[in-house]
Amino acid sequence: MVTIRDIASLAGVSRTTVSRVLNGSGYVSEQARKRVMEVIEETGYVPSEQAKALRTKKSNVIGVILPKISTETASRVADGIDTVLNREGYQMILANAKLKVEKEIEQLKLLESRRVDGIILLATNKEDRLLKAIESLSVPVVALGQDLPSISSVIYDDYHAAREMTEAILKKGRNRIGFIGVYESDHAVGVLRKQGYLDALEAEGKTPEEGWIQKGDFTAESGYRAMKSIWESADRKPDAVFAVTDRLAVGALEYLRAIGVKTPEETAVAGIGNSEISKYVTPSLSTVDYNNEEAGMRTAELLLERLNSSGENREKIVMGYRLLIRDSLR
Amino acid sequence: MVTIRDIASLAGVSRTTVSRVLNGSGYVSEQARKRVMEVIEETGYVPSEQAKALRTKKSNVIGVILPKISTETASRVADGIDTVLNREGYQMILANAKLKVEKEIEQLKLLESRRVDGIILLATNKEDRLLKAIESLSVPVVALGQDLPSISSVIYDDYHAAREMTEAILKKGRNRIGFIGVYESDHAVGVLRKQGYLDALEAEGKTPEEGWIQKGDFTAESGYRAMKSIWESADRKPDAVFAVTDRLAVGALEYLRAIGVKTPEETAVAGIGNSEISKYVTPSLSTVDYNNEEAGMRTAELLLERLNSSGENREKIVMGYRLLIRDSLR
DNA sequence: CTGTTAGCGCCTTCAG
DNA sequence: CTGAAGGCGCTAACAG
User: Fold this and answer.
1) From the CA of A166, how many Å to the C1' of D1?
2) Band of pLDDT at residue B329, cut at 50, 70 and 90
3) How far A276 CA sits from the closest chain B CA (Å)?
4) Is B79 within 8 Å of A70 when comparing Cβ atoms?
5) What's the structural domain count of chain B?
6) Do residue A239 and residue A163 come from a single domain?
7) What is the pTM of this model?
8) Rounded CA gap, A80 and A73, in Å?
9) CA distance B22 to A257
10) Do residue A285 and residue A254 come from a single domain?
């Protein structure tokens, strides 16, 4: 591999001069610059960002920790992050947390060892050991998706989104609304969305019946099972079901179809996420669009700002959302 | 940032000794090891992979160039790649080619400047300048998705997949099969799949009618428009349509529904890719499963083998596929 | 078992 | 306008 040294000697100048033409810093005679450029061209020399980073203590790489790689949400977010990063001259190193806290922490450390300039964490929990791990890090971290105390974050308005969707269902005259949630370690999805649902009901003086509230695990299959549990355990059958995720909702839709319940006539269904399938299932699924790409962009911008300002102040951005009422809710 | 030097002096040993306990290389007395470990623990020292890489000329980072980040195929492949890379102690730096050749080349160079150990390219074309760029690179590259001469690659069996799906359609007694393809710069998708379709027809002595063959650009909307063109320009209406992509097929499905043509009764539809929507549209879409995750894994393995063997021999792996005949084809 | 020495490829004072 | 010298954090001979 050809180095700056080779270029220097081939061009008959010092390494310093080569460095200067490379970075456009300081004065270099037109003649010298030309010689150097020629040699670079001939040799196909590519400066090592690695060595540069060691010297300048800036790698221009940002680490991104995803809960799972092949997920619609994650890839939309990654797309948004990449847009901003690419524009600002950064590259992105991806790390997979596989939905496990330990893995999340492990990846944080791995990224720190790579000396990335900053880390974006798509968080799925707010566990103490995670917060501790972040604090002990010497690399700036911003979170997306969960409101982590002590660091800047971009979050979705889970509570209001869920509440508004539930209200929209109520407004259609539906009174017996079931709910499919997830485990509560995921605070944003497991707790906030559920609270939004509960509060919307309570505001109308309604109480969900025993058995109307079930849990899944983000898969369509679990949505199917949850819907089945609701149906079989409830005395009065619900006339609507709100799932915290489109996949769960699609699973619910499938169960209803399987037992011959008409959607939306008998039982309406709604989800959150505006996944691509939501548009193409029959009936098309009512859902909430979170604009993940934009969220990714905002998060990247937040991180970059932090890198350039050296300020320690924490910032919190709450993303807006958009209700999409489609055929599954009439 | 604490360095190996700090650890050494705090532990009262030399940097070499610290390095040795870090890498488990050479002999270190139990006593010294313990002292060092303690100090590392206390200080929260994290060795710089960056400096290590500069010295060892191995970064343990692999670059992955995707045509687009938020794509089902890309993210499945990335998932597979990550599985293998993670298992073998590598990390993945993602680069977005935005479906442009120049950007593809630019990313190759950028990754080279980062001194990644190898590059995986999800290729969408076989243009000469791309091949040239790859050859001038001093980093091993393997391709996925296109059969690039001169480098190792993992490819899908596009020709046979398309041909077999077309044959499956013919076997259902459909005789007038339309086709929605894409531009030919994407050799695998644009040329090979089309050839499979044409050859299957020809083997049965059939010739597609003028207007039955249209092009789209990977979006559902373009599939819709292509289907419309087929419908409006053909004298005899097709009784089946084969699209080279699920999204195109879904667009076609939408058009047919819009004009009140029954699927599959009047006109059957098939795609390729086994996208998630294919399972949930109505009627469910017949398609070909390419097992992208496995392809990603194989590609990563191919690259790692190449890194460890220092051999220059090129290898070509052809992935298998699986026909999924669903409701859209009866 | 341990330390000394020498660089990996680059940038950055500091003197010319 | 240009070069020499030093060092970023780490590992790899090579002597002890």
Assistant:
1) 72
2) very high
3) 7
4) yes
5) 3
6) yes
7) 0.95
8) 11
9) 59
10) yes
